[in-house]
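Case 583 in the screening queue. Each case pairs one protein sequence with one candidate compound; here the compound is pyridoxal-5'-phosphate. For every case the pipeline is the same: read the inputs, emit a complex structure as tokens, and attach any notable structural observations.

Predict complex for case 583.
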Amino acid sequence: MKGKGVKKLLEESVLDIHKLTSEPKIAYFSMEIGFDERIHTYSGGLGILAGDTIKSSSDLKLPMVAVTLISKKGYFKQELDERGRQIELPDEWNPADHMTLLPEKITVRTEGREVYVQSWIYSIDSLTGGSIPVLFLDTDLPDNEAGDRGITHSLYGGDERYRLKQEIVLGIGGERMLRALGFKIKKYHMNEGHASLLTLSLLLRFKRDIEEVWDEKEVWDLESVKDLCVFTTHTPVEAGHDKFSYGMVREVLGEFIPFDLLKELGGSDKMNMTLLAMNLSRYINGVAKKHGAVSKGLFPGYEIHAITNGIHSYTWTCESFARLYDKYLPGWANEPEVFVRVGRIPDEELWAAHMEAKRRLIDYIRDVKGSCMGYDTLTIGFARRATAYKRATLLFRDIERLKRIGKGRLQLIYAGKAHPRDMEGKKNIEEIFKAIEALKGDIEVVYLPNYDIGLAMKMVSGVDVWLNTPMRPREASGTSGMKAAHNGVLNLSVLDGWWIEGHIEDYTGWSIGPGPTETTLAESSDETDTEDLYHKLEHKVIRTYYDDRERWIRMMQNAIGKNAYYFNSHRMIRRYVTEAYIR
Ligand SMILES: *Cc1c(COP(=O)(O)O)cnc(C)c1O
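Case 583 output:
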């Protein structure tokens, strides 16, 4: 992958919108897309997955166009004070530095006003010659009144009404913009329910022109819309799905289609964006096998498939490992299947590549935090959105026991942002800061601020073990553990999401707590899980690391040969093509 902006292409007069629109494409809609640390249009996993999906599609030269919002004020930049209290700063970026503004404008209606929408175009180009245009929708136009100019400013900012307006711009505005630019679309893929309103825009387009109507419903051609739509759900809990009261929908969206039809499609009490998308998509899937099953339980009666997530191998492989793979597994970046031959890499070179990445992370921590961590000390990393279900503080439930197990033998690196309104997530960060104090002198722990693509890359490659402790079954998939595996970093994780499929005990990594059983939302037991976590740490992880380096390196090979081999976005997108796009 190389990120060459269309700005440059336009200047070189290579960009030709007619060329872009000549071939029918898959339209990939996502509220957030994360593909470059300088472009702050993502908050976490969902956005990075979208970016990785597009990068693999570009490598494989798939006919695709992506649609998202410009979010020029970003999500937020995180600072932490000495007690771990989160400070949220604006994280603005300038679209004109990276992409090209297109002259076409369309309008959508919100609160009875016309809102003009323009778009910026960026091309995600691959070294293979593939390239995928990404449209960033933007309402910051002088034609709009002040409030409306900010609709596309802040990712996941504002209240419910703001969110609904954003979803109108994304779904309805996005569909209209593609048409205005002349794109021919053969499938619309909604990455999560934020884009569901595009189904209504399509319904209007497929409205039958019948002269004598016996039944009002006959004019709405639901089947044609379904044939065009693919929907991926990412949320395994009922409360996580976007819902809007019909009172607000009436005020903000108006009677876009008749309300009785909308209620049939989106649910009788509230407009549920997941239901809306499911009722108008021929193909629906969850993002791991377990998540597919859990989603079926949440939405009985729907056929829900599963395509397990993957990550873009080239993006998430650090420099030292990329060099190693180039030497022993040429072609790996566009054909991750060659990881199956990982056994060709000599043990010493695999370890040396790992130590290079580890030194880089530890040097970085010395530079930004002044903390001295040891190159040879077993290092555990934990970085993810700070929110209750991720249980970031599980490891600290029994500080004295942790000291006994880890004194002088363990060091820990944490990171993660809490959503500005997630008070519990913020409290979690403060609790980790307390643990840092309590462990001082025994176990070195740091919390690195502002987790983003750049920091994720350093962490998933520079630690020895990647820890994940979500409450089952709330981790729909999880992807950072796949990034770790690409860099020979071993996973120690609760059996949920992708790890159920990737885990072989003592072989690709280690599990925490009981195996996957029911698909219901049985609460995890903190007690049982902590007990198992301490036990595994003491008797397996620490022992193997210090006493059986050969076995450790064998496990690193297995992480690459079994996990990276499979959990990559090349495999994932090929499955979307054969199971969802061309059917
Ligand atoms: C990969 C990634 C995530 C998602 O990781 P999970 O394992 O799903 O929590 C979130 N944020 C950033 C910056 C990432 O790179």
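Case 583 observations:
- The chain has a mean pLDDT of 94.
- The longest strand covers residues 113-125.
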